[in-house]
Protein 1
Amino acid sequence: MENINDSNLYKAFIIVPLVIALFTGGVSLYSKLSIEPAAATLISSAETMKQGYVMLREPQLFAGYRYWDSDGTAVKNTIRYFDFMINSGGEIKAEEKVYLELLLDRRKGGSMLGLKTAVFMLIISSMGGAMLFLENRKKDTEKGS
Amino acid sequence: MHKLYLRGILLLAAVSLITSCAKTPERVISPSVKAAVVQGEDKSWSIFFTGGIKNENDSTAFINIEGDILLVNDSGDELISIPFKIPAILPFETGVIKEKIDIKGEKAEKLFSMLAVSPDKLGAPDEPGNRFLDDKNVKLDSIKFEKKDIVKLLGEKVK
């Protein structure tokens, strides 16, 4: 029976998920460690709420503003309201902070999803690594005998 | 193998480009007209057009929108052209068009025929002159606008 060389397949199983993990993990970590704390600080003060909103208006990779489920309706309406208000030269009131927190929570949810995706991809990549290791060991055993 | 990778990358780039392009408005929402007699002028009427243009994008604002609304009959013949301007339509918003033009003569005759309006009875209680238009009778023509990323637009306002 012909021996099938699965090494290239296992290498693909290692490399592709690893690349995806690095990308999604990197983007999500950047959001978690840099953007989210900065946005939280900006929206906590009445003087910098507008800057905080503009920062949060740029969506996170996994928490975009294009597709909406029922939970996203409040976020969509928030965006419509604040886009119009800031474009018209208005100010964000202190009591409206709760709506900015909706956007921050959406971003946090997105970055957490990205991190979990990265972990999942790392697990797949590790499985590929384990399979490649076993394949090579099997080949070495066969060569030895 | 190398060619396959290249094709894959090109395909991915093409898909990304297409999906990231801003959606251009192609139709007018809820178009309607109201016809009224021009006071002091014989056989002259004002047509008040109302409609909306929706911005379906999430991050692109349309600025300085200009264009023409064409009213056509069921055969597709152009009846009148109504120019319009809207300063800006933000993401998820609908820009409102409210324009008025005066018409007379053959143009008016053809338009009233399409709308099934009796011009002689305009202003009477049984003929207020309001009509909702079908999509097939309204075309958005020669629309021009600038696109601007909403984050950049708002960033300029906040500075």
Protein 2
Amino acid sequence: MLQGTLIYGLINSVVLMLVALGFSVTFGISGVANFAYGALYIMAGYLAWLGLHALHLPYWLAAPGAVLITAGVAALIYWFILLRVRGLVVSEVIATFGVGLAILELFRYLGFIGFEYTLPQVDASYNIGETVVDAQRLLIVAAGLALAGFLWLFTHHTKVGLAFRGIAQDERTSLTLGINTDKIAAFSVAFGAGYAALAALVILPLGTIAVNEGYNVLVNALAVCIVGGLGSTVGIIVASLLIGYAQILTATYLETHWMMIVSLVAILLILAIKPSGLFGVHKELEERI
Amino acid sequence: MARRRERVDRGIKVRSEDVYALTSWREMLYLAAPRVLPVVALFVLGMTASVYWERVLVSTCMFAMLAISWDVLNSAGMVSLGQALFFGMGAYIAGTLNHYLGLGPWLTLPLATLGGGLVCTLVLLPVLRLRGIYFAMVTLILPLMIERVIEATKIFGGTEGLSGLTPLGSEHVQFLVALVAVWVALYGFRRMMGTDYGLLLKGIKDNDRAVMSAGINIYWYKAQALFLASAVGAFAGAFMTHAYQFVGMPVFALDYSIMPIASVAVGGMGTLAGPMLGSFILVPLSELLRGLGGLRTVIYAVILVACTVGLPEGVFHYLARKYTQFERWAEVDK
């Protein structure tokens, strides 16, 4: 019982982390709002499904195709929509949220609802101690570790990754240092969407692809980013572990009704006590006065 | 020859800005028309419309009040992503007072307005020191959490809500109350923002540390602004509770947080009239699109994005500019 809780808590945490990583690249690290994130996540799932079942492509072609198309769509969203309202925070949020709404509801309108919309998963299961864990969930954990590690390396040791962090700190200063902020911001939106697509490809096989999941994904990603602190990859890992275990523990020992409440209370407490998050860069006068 | 567009104030605006220079009917009309015409037009529109559209106008007025409340808060430097908190608080206070104590709507409306404002202010008091996105996130999370708490603890009717509440009166009575409320809110707050008090609130938004260094307790003023704004939102909630004769978990839903912000994005912030205009565009539009079925939300979202991207300053600012200024091509000096 306890062992099962621990293992499934870890898996739940990694799912949260995978979902939050892409959002963190754009919003947390580069400071570009992309509230169409949940829609892009779901879109990647449907694109892969379409590739497999409508075009009858092999998996090794359909999956990377879905990732690339999602990233391309995100770059287009930035170039034609976000770029024009850059700096007007309310308009940024509303415009990207509107795009996400349009994408998600379009899929709903086209009838992409039902049990046949599933992605292929790895069929196998292993016993860890007394707990049975299927291979897909192990794959999720492996993918989570790999993607988080890659993100940390990318944002700390490559030129583009450092530019991501640069435009979040000060866009004008990065301009003077020869960083093309528009291109970098577009690239960061596309990069985040690519991460969302990868997360979708490993997580969605656990269930069916559902439109409503897009909204939950956005809220979860936002929650993890806030608790962990904007701009910190380590913060994301710690925050997903915290929220993930809190959710699984409340689901086991209380009712499932309380699962969402626990993560919301965690966010509220973090915001009230340490607004920049657990590992975020502390900005004394910017966060409270 | 390089040219640029130049904007110049219209003569009539310059003349009529000074009250003592009002010499002709034309100038007085120029000032009065944009203020009086909407009031008259909305009144006539509502009284002649069908029952269905009269109801749409009533809920439009309430969304407009939520949007105005957003703009008041924003003028004092607080960005809210959770107008549903104010709306839901007012709705539940009015609903429980009516359901458990049997108070009539004319008693629950003022009680819910004041009570809702007070409760929301007290709830947000601990995070009043937070700025910008951090304050916004707290307001976004609170209504979502209250919704879940009601679901889990099953208080006040739980998921079923409270139904069979006392109605407000006939369609016309409802419409008139909503109309008076929204105009009082708009012109009252516009007047307030013009006084020294409003200037102080704007100062807190522009540079809170400068206001502090002038020896002014900004938390006290922020709390007051919060109370005013949340009371307006609570009124809207209480009113809709009696109009629908029902209160339940949906009053804390994300719709009531997003619609006011969308109105602000379309109408343009900072003037209070902009957000109101925005909701008078968006709410009837979403009703018009109802016939399209599933495509409704898609088209609605596309229009919303087109408005925010095509006219980032907002419809109201655009119209106001066209009304008070003219544009011409001017040659650029070498």
